[in-house]
Structures are given as structure tokens and as C-alpha cells.
Amino acid sequence: DAKTTQPTSMDCAEGRAANLPCNHSTISGNEYVYWYRQIHSQGPQYIIHGLKNNETNEMASLIITEDRKSSTLILPHATLRDTAVYYCIVRADNTDKLIFGTGTRLQVFP
Amino acid sequence: GAVVSQHPSWVICKSGTSVKIECRSLDFQATTMFWYRQFPKQSLMLMATSNEGSKATYEQGVEKDKFLINHASLTLSTLTVTSAHPEDSSFYICSYQGTDTQYFGPGTRLTVL
């Protein structure tokens, strides 16, 4: 079973920041937080991952709370093409399985 | 990131026939890869993990004799759905294990009539 909980859906206006929360209260010390997204009828796309420090790349920022029980994915300037299902996944290392939960369906509107 | 292709992108077949789906890593060699399936409006479900040169490991509830996986090389894996039935209609997605994450193919939509 997935070890994370996410809101079922969220809306965001184009150009605004999209903040997607994820709860992972049972995360272990050696588990990373990964974020993927899946645009309709496509394969998932890797976004970002982190262990305990905040991370930023060209796609997004990942903010992990100090107790590591929750995190937030931030898309700083959402566009219509960011409309997708976003999955938050915890896994121990790169050889661990990816167990997908239900994710958050983000709808970006004009 | 690595580029992964799947062929075909969609296929329609009659009940009872077998369908082969190819998954290729175009710029990356990986010893481990994964096959997922996704039913409409549901999340991805891991079917099996395969390592090059050895037999695949199937998740609970996935029939190994029905879903044949051949990890032929570091850049090619195939999934054969044998004696397909309408309930096998789904979106099948492969992924390769990279150095820091998994890279997914675009998926293959299988429709069994």
C-alpha cells in the first residue's frame, strides 16, 4: 500500500504557484520523498526527490518539513501544460519499488 | 533524463490472441526494469520487476504464465499478454531503473475485443 496521502484534486490559476501537499507520517529515516506526474494517457514523468533538505530544480521545488512527516511540491508559475495527476511516493532507495497511490489531480485553469 | 520508447503505442486484438509489447531504452542501459498497468481512472499498479539475465519477479496476484516478460538485453524488454481477454484491456507502462530515479515509457493501450 502507498505510504502517502494526498488531496484528491486541486485547482490553480495559470501563472500562479501551485502548492501540492503530501502527508507521509510513517516515513522511515532512510526513505526519500519522490514526486512524479502523469499527464493524461502518458507515462509518468519524474519531477524531483529529496531526503530531508529542500530541493529545487528547473521544474519545481520540494519543501520537506523538519520532522519529515509531510512535504509540499511547488510549481512556481503553473501553466496549462502542468495539468496532470501528481504522485508523491516514499521509497528507501533507488532499487526500491515505486508504489503509486491515488495522487492529486491538478487542474490549471486560464 | 533517459528516453524510453514502447511499441506499439496502442493495439486492438481479439479475445484469445497474444500480444507482445516492446520497451526500449534509447540512451540508457539498465539491469532492472519494471512493468505497470493502469486501468481507467485508477493509479499505476506494479506488475513485475525484471533483471537482465534472470527471471522476472511478479507481484502478488499477477499471473506469470499469462504475462510473460523477457528481459532480452540492457535496452530491450518485452511483455507478452497471452490469451488476452477483455479484462486485460488496460494501459501498460514500462520503466527503466536509472541512477537516481525510474524513467517511464509512454505506455501502450491494449484493447481486447
Can you offer a commentary on this structure?
Chain A has 110 residues and is mainly β. Chain A is 0% helix and 45% strand. A five-stranded mixed sheet of chain A has the order 1-9-8-3-4, with no helix packed on it. In chain A, strand 6 (61-64) and strand 7 (70-75) form a beta hairpin. Chain A is globular and about 40 Å long. Chain B has 113 residues and is an all-beta fold. In chain B, 0% of the residues lie in helices and 53% in strands. In chain B, the strands form two sheets. In chain B, strands 2, 4, 5, 6, 9, 10 and 11 form a seven-stranded mixed sheet that branches. A four-stranded antiparallel sheet of chain B has the order 1-3-8-7, with no helix packed on it. In chain B, strand 4 (32-38) and strand 5 form a beta hairpin. The model of chain B has no long low-confidence stretch (mean pLDDT 92).
Secondary structure blueprint with pairings:
The complex is a heterodimer of chains A (110) and B (113).
Chain A: E1 9-13, E2 18-23, E3 32-38, E4 45-50, E5 55-56, E6 61-64, E7 70-75, E8 84-91, E9 104-109
Parallel strand pairs in A: 1-9
Antiparallel strand pairs in A: 2-7, 3-4, 3-8, 5-6, 6-7, 8-9
Chain B: E1 4-7, E2 10-13, E3 19-25, E4 32-38, E5 45-51, E6 57-58, E7 67-73, E8 76-81, E9 90-97, E10 102-104, E11 108-112
How big is the Rg of chain B? 13 Å
Distance between the termini of chain B: 36 Å
Please tell me the overall pLDDT of chain B. 92
- Helix fraction of chain A, binned, reads under 10%
Please tell me the overall pLDDT of chain A.
Answer: 93
Q: Tell me the radius of gyration of chain A.
A: 13 Å
How is the main sheet of chain B built? Answer: 7 strands, mixed
Number of helices, counting only DSSP H or I runs of 4 residues or more of chain B: 0
Order of helices and strands of chain A: EEEEEEEEE
| Residue fraction in strands of chain A | over 45%
Number of helices of chain A: 0
Largest sheet of chain A: 5 strands, mixed
Number of strands of chain B: 11
